[in-house]
Design goal:
The structure holds 2 protein chains of 2 kinds. Helices cover about 75% and strands about 0% of the residues of chain A. The two termini of chain A are about 20 Å apart. Chain A is built from 7 helices and 1 strand, in the order αβαααααα. The relative contact order of chain A is 0.12. Chain A is mostly helical. Helix content of chain B is about 60%, strand content about 0%. Chain B has a two-stranded antiparallel ribbon with strand order 2-3. In chain B, strand 2 and strand 3 form a beta hairpin. The chains are: A mainly alpha, B mainly alpha. At the A-B interface, helix 1, strand 1, helix 2 and helix 5 of A face strand 1, helix 6, helix 7, helix 8 and helix 9 of B. Strand 1 of chain A pairs parallel with strand 1 of chain B, so a sheet runs across the interface.
């Protein structure tokens, strides 16, 4: 459970830092009047949506941190036979990275009011994300063909579970991106696209990060890293 | 007192407090156009709250009847011939799961959270009303699926509410074929629905507060609901992952949790799974869940006590810090549910220590409630009675928690009736008392009419005393060694015959207490039409929800302008004020006389 505890420590640090800045030390019973900064804080729906996404990403992070915890706990038992990673996974990783970059360019284009840039970015992002999902599907097929079945060794089952959970989150992101693209193709102006593109890009980066961590777990880099640290310490 | 307007003067600082700068960029309010969008597929948090509340109470009634059936079996084995061992286990499982997840969590967060967050913070609605509506309908689907478990072949699962594998998915466990699948899918739906609602509660607290409503001016009710929601958002994924993995084990033949095992002489097609892994995941959710239920109760009780004792809450800052501290600590105590699971015994010391540490902020809250009452002008209204009942019950339940948190005491008491008595006191009876108190308190705001006081007092005394008559003897049964989850005891050397007499007594009391809840439901229905007119602020409370221009609050809550907050939520018995309280949106006598005096903050 060390992964989830580490993750929660991070969340806690952010939460406490934020509470501190919000004045958790004030004495409200002594303060009368309209407190708060002179300039009103940003209460726009766009800001609300961004905060909402941040909170949602914390939930997603918790989900994957818990899965990773379970993975590591199970991997510590004796009969663990690590999966031989199908080669296509590396291609998929770079495709997902491309997808993330494409959406980032779309976000930057939206800031510059460059509708053509937004179009190209969103299309490329959606396409590469679809490609990633197809690639993951191929990776599953490949594993299956090599005799790594879901009902086989727990390592294999975890591979399917983790990639499946991640794939579902990419698919969910694609639904939202699809809505943005739909609006875009019907000729929506940049002002109506900016928020959607912005949120999608953030979500994509988070999913890329999660994928890299999962990849590290599945390829056993994390295990090796822990082993090296342990050697250094002892 | 020091006037603080951190920079800038109060522009147009009148009582109504126009705040044009803040109205800019406010989310557009969704306006329902038909009866269906107003009352069925409503996006108004108040309607959603009532939907959540009614659904939770309906499913809670099912769980109540299940508890009656269990009690009948324990006191009069064989009297109801349709209760066999399988049914008994199914009743246990469904009773526990419904009460903890589908009633308490849904009612506190989905019900009170939805109703109170926007109103207490001066918002017009939640930040994402559509998501909020979806949250309720997914919750309803989860509840209906759960109920469907009673009608599938083999009935609902009988694995106990903890659903421990391998038991839960092995043949010969009741509901192994369909019941467990239905239960897991229902839980997953619940979590998805809750996440949608939870995002709303958190973001509304972060972004939807009205002008002047700083974090440290929020009523403790909101602090409790807010912290509990954050915890639930982080803890429920553990249950989700566990449910997905168990579903895989059950349907796809994986072995996440299933070890190599021989079932009725045959080797089961599993191997290599770790049952303890599930316990870790389950309790990583399960323990925070206790506080997900308790923290909103803490918050609500603080407000009830302060309002009905006409005194400001003692140690507001400490109360806030304690809520946040309990929330954080509750994530590192989960394995105290697993002392006898076979985990590394070295963990026991760590988790026993964290468990005892959590008693500190909890005790702090109890002291602060008592000190709030100290020399207060206590009104023994029905909500106050329930709040006082909560404090006593929570102390009792909490103290036995200290017993069970210690490894050496827990090991002999594990899986006895003592545990059942402990958690029913601390997270069954105590939060339910708060729910009742809160309903008596806010019903006038929700409906515009008061609940009947006489019925309320009867309801309180029977429920409160009855709960003690039920659960106090149960501690004793546990100390005798009577195990929990036994369909029938039969002849045992160490349990005296008098235990059976005690069981009969408990059962009869439980039937009476359960029946008294019908009185409460009758009161709810009857007062809707025949209750005394409440007016806008019958309890003379300070918080914003009592200051709405209309009662019950109209769509959009606040009429033309949102309120501006000038003070914290606990200005009761203020010296020199014309009434004995000052609402949060009242600039007050000081400010009115001194004009726009501004001093720097007292941080």
């Amino acid at each position: 459970m060390s992964v989830i505890l580490l993750f929660l420590t991070g969340i806690l640090a952010i939460a406490f830092g934020w509470l501190w800045r919000q004045g958790i030390l004030t004495k409200p019973w002594l303060e009368v009047g309209v407190a708060g900064p002179a300039a009103p804080p940003d209460r726009s729906p766009a800001r609300g949506a961004r905060v909402g996404l941040a909170v949602f990403l914390a939930v997603v992070g918790s989900l994957f941190a818990l899965s990773a915890s379970a993975y590591l706990m199970r991997a510590g038992l004796g009969d663990w036979e690590a999966v031989r990673m199908p080669g296509i996974v590396w291609v998929n990783t770079s495709v997902l990275a491309l997808s993330s970059i494409a959406l980032e360019t779309a976000r930057l284009a939206a800031r510059r009011d460059d509708i053509e840039g937004v179009r190209a970015g969103v299309r490329a992002g959606a396409l590469t994300a679809l490609l990633f999902l197809a690639g993951q599907w191929l990776a599953w097929r490949q594993l299956h063909a090599e005799g790594y079945f879901l009902a086989g060794n727990p390592a294999t089952a975890f591979f399917y579970l983790l990639t499946g959970l991640h794939g579902l989150h990419v698919a969910g992101g694609l639904v939202v991106l699809g809505r943005v693209a739909w609006r875009m193709e019907r000729g929506a102006g940049i002002a109506r696209l900016r928020l959607g593109v912005d949120l999608c890009a953030t979500y994509w980066h988070a999913l890329l990060l999660i994928w890299l961590v999962l990849l590290g777990l599945l390829a056993n880099w994390v295990g090796d890293f822990v082993a090296i640290c342990r050697q250094l310490l002892t | 007192m020091v006037d603080v307007t951190h920079g800038g003067s109060i522009s147009g600082g009148t009582a109504s407090g126009a705040a044009p700068a803040f109205e800019v960029g406010e989310p557009d309010l969704y306006h329902p156009r038909s009866w269906v969008t107003k009352y069925v597929f409503s996006q108004d948090a108040k309607v959603i709250a009532i939907q959540y509340g009614l659904t939770a109470m309906a499913i809670g009634l099912v769980a109540l009847v299940l508890s009656w059936l269990m009690r009948m079996q324990l006191a009069f084995p064989g009297l109801l011939p349709f209760i066999d061992a399988d049914h008994y286990y199914q009743f246990i499982t469904m009773h526990g799961m419904i009460m903890v997840v589908y009633l308490l969590t849904a009612l506190f967060l989905g019900g009170f959270g939805n109703y109170l967050i926007p109103l207490m913070l001066g918002a017009r609605d939640m930040m994402f009303p559509y998501l909020n509506m979806l949250s309720y309908w997914i919750y309803l689907a989860a509840v209906l699926l759960l109920v469907a478990g009673f009608f599938v072949p083999g009935g609902p699962t009988g694995a106990g509410w903890t659903l421990y594998p391998p038991q839960a998915i092995l043949a010969n466990t009741p509901g192994q074929s369909w019941g467990i699948v239905v239960m897991l899918v229902s839980l997953m739906l619940f979590i998805i629905g809750f996440t949608m609602g939870g995002l709303n509660y958190v973001v509304t607290v972060l972004q939807g507060r009205t002008r002047g409503m700083t974090l440290m001016r929020m009523p403790l009710t909101i602090w409790g609901i807010f912290t509990a929601t954050v915890m639930a958002l982080l803890a429920f994924p553990a249950l989700f992952v566990g449910a997905v993995m168990m579903l895989f084990d059950r349907l796809l033949g994986t072995s996440f949790f299933m070890p190599a095992i021989v079932v009725t002489g045959e080797q089961a097609p599993y191997g290599g799974g770790s049952p303890i892994l599930f316990q870790h995941l389950f309790w990583f959710f399960g323990h925070p869940e206790v506080y997900i239920v308790a923290l909103p109760a803490f918050g609500i009780v603080s407000d009830l006590i302060s309002t009905h004792a006409r005194k400001n809450i003692f140690g507001y800052r400490m109360m806030v810090w304690a809520i946040v501290g309990i929330g954080a600590l509750s994530f590192v105590v989960w394995a105290h549910h697993m002392y006898v699971s076979g985990m590394n015994p070295g963990f026991g010391f760590f988790f026993a220590t964290t468990t005892l540490i959590i008693a500190i902020p909890t005790a702090l809250k109890v002291y602060n409630w008592v000190l709030t009452l100290w020399r207060g002008d206590i009104h023994f209204t029905v909500p106050m009675l329930f709040a006082l009942g909560f404090i006593v019950t929570f102390i009792n339940g909490g103290l036995t928690g200290l017993f069970l948190g210690n490894v050496v005491v827990d090991v002999p008491l594990s899986d006895t009736m003592f545990v059942v008595a402990h958690f029913h006191m601390v997270m069954g009876v105590a939060p339910i008392l708060v729910i009742f108190g809160a309903i008596y308190h806010w019903y006038p705001k929700i409906t515009g009419r008061m609940l009947n006081t006489t019925l309320g007092k009867v309801h309180f005394w029977v429920t409160f005393l009855g709960a003690y008559l039920i659960f106090f003897p149960m501690h004793y049964l546990g100390l005798l060694g009577v195990p929990r989850r036994y369909f029938e005891m039969g002849e045992t050397a160490f349990v005296p015959a008098s235990a059976a007499t005690l069981n009969v007594f408990i059962t009869i009391t439980a039937l009476v207490v359960g029946a008294t809840q019908m009185l409460f439901l009758f009161n709810l229905a009857w007062s809707l039409r025949h209750g005394r007119e409440a007016g806008g602020n019958p309890w003379r409370a300070t918080t914003l929800e009592w200051q709405t221009p209309e009662t019950p609050p109209a769509h959009g809550n606040w009429g033309a302008e949102r309120p501006v907050v000038y003070r914290w939520a606990y200005d009761y018995s203020v010296p020199g004020a014309s009434q004995d309280f000052l609402p949060q949106n009242d600039p007050g006598p000081d400010l009115a006389s001194s004009g726009e005096t501004v001093a720097e903050g007292v941080r």
